[in-house]
Recover the amino acids of this structure.
């Protein structure tokens, strides 16, 4: 028994060392074996054997030579970007995107559908077709792909990959998306709530690469968030943490699709703003927006943004109000979690800079001053594809293990 325990420990220790070496090289670029030894405190033979394993696996490669320290110039080791590939899939109320990425998170190819089919079977078929399309276009074979991550609307169970009853996917109930995709693609699939995927993506590939604690707030047709504490997703007892869109911000506010009243999402989301715009136009407010704006969920946000950019007063007032509500959300997040970084993403945040400006300004003013001083609030650096990149980072995290910071 003792020797078995000893062996099991040996395997775990080897994996931890391997992950430590791999993450160091991922974060620092090219390093010599001596650099790795110095920076990790591991023995030279452990460093050598870990690097040999990782080169065998195709994750690292020998790449150029470093400066001489008097003797022979040392061989440098770096990440092998094309040693493996990962897929990221964004499944949303209106849209569907599939992208192929290398190990550094660079996107090789992507397909986007502005509309998605209604049934789970048809969606799985469309995702599979998208996967084969991006592989074909990049000349990558399925065998070179480590797996696919999917960012989907909650509530869902990340372990089983079952979508429960997502309000954004009407008619879907207990859909085993992970199993369906694994059968269709013969590939490991990881499914995660969109807000969580966004937070992880920003930590791996975006503005949060040096942050230990960050909260990502999505401001789009709906409002959601993902919380990363000490480098780990905070999922909560039922994998439901981060439902910031359903925190009450107006005691007597309008009904929300969650069954509550005056939720942040019912007051400040793209859908809520479209409703407010329609009501204002019906009241006779002068605007280029029409009272029919509310009828189409997917085009409401772009219509508002276009109107605001063209100088429409009503659209700009509504987006200003959205920024103020997001500011309150930021203040609450700062007081609750005291995070290092808050990232704003989604079309309303990324395409109308005043939303972020207003939100930052009010958020800082309304949070505890000492906490507000130490938090950064920034727009996502991953652009409109932040969910697809977040989905891909689910698999990157599987390959590299927990980040070592
Ligand atoms: Zn709600």
């Amino acid at each position: 028994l003792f020797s078995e325990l000893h062996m099991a420990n040996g395997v775990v220790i080897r994996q931890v060392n391997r992950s430590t070496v791999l993450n160091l090289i991922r974060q620092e670029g090219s390093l010599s074996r001596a650099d790795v030894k110095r920076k990790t405190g591991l023995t030279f033979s452990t460093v050598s054997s870990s690097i040999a394993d990782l080169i065998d696996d195709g994750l690292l490669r020998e790449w150029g030579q470093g400066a001489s320290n008097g003797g022979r110039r040392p061989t440098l080791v770096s990440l092998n970007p094309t040693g493996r590939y990962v897929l990221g899939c964004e499944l949303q109320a209106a849209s569907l995107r599939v992208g192929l990425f290398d190990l550094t998170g660079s996107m090789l190819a992507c397909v986007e559908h502005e509309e998605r089919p209604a049934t789970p079977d048809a969606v799985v078929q469309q995702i599979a077709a998208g996967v084969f399309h991006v592989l074909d276009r990049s000349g990558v074979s399925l065998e070179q792909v480590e797996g696919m991550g999917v960012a989907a609307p909650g509530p869902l169970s990340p372990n089983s990959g079952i979508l429960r009853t997502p309000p954004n996917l009407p008619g879907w109930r207990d859909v085993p998306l992970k199993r369906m995709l694994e059968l269709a693609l013969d590939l490991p699939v990881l499914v995660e709530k969109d807000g969580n995927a966004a937070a992880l993506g920003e930590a791996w590939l975006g503005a949060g690469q040096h942050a230990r604690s960050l909260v990502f707030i999505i401001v789009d047709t709906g409002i959601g968030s993902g919380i990363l504490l000490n480098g780990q997703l905070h999922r909560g007892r039922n994998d439901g943490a981060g439902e910031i869109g359903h925190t009450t911000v107006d005691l007597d506010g309008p009904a929300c699709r969650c069954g509550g009243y005056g939720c942040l999402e019912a007051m400040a989301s793209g859908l809520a703003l479209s409703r407010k715009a329609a009501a204002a136009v019906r009241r006779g407010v002068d605007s280029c927006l029409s009272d029919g704006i509310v009828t189409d969920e997917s085009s409401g946000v772009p219509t508002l943004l276009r109107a605001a950019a063209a100088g429409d007063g009503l659209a700009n007032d509504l987006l200003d109000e959205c920024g103020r509500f997001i500011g309150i959300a930021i203040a609450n997040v700062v007081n609750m979690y005291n995070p290092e970084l808050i990232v704003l993403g989604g079309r309303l945040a990324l395409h109308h800079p005043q939303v972020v400006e207003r939100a930052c300004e009010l958020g800082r003013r309304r949070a505890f001053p000492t906490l507000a001083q130490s938090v950064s609030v920034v727009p996502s650096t991953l652009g409109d594809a932040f969910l697809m990149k977040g989905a891909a980072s689910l698999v990157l995290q599987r390959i590299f293990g927990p980040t070592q910071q």
Remarks:
- The chain has 14 helices and 15 strands.
- The longest strand covers residues 145-152.
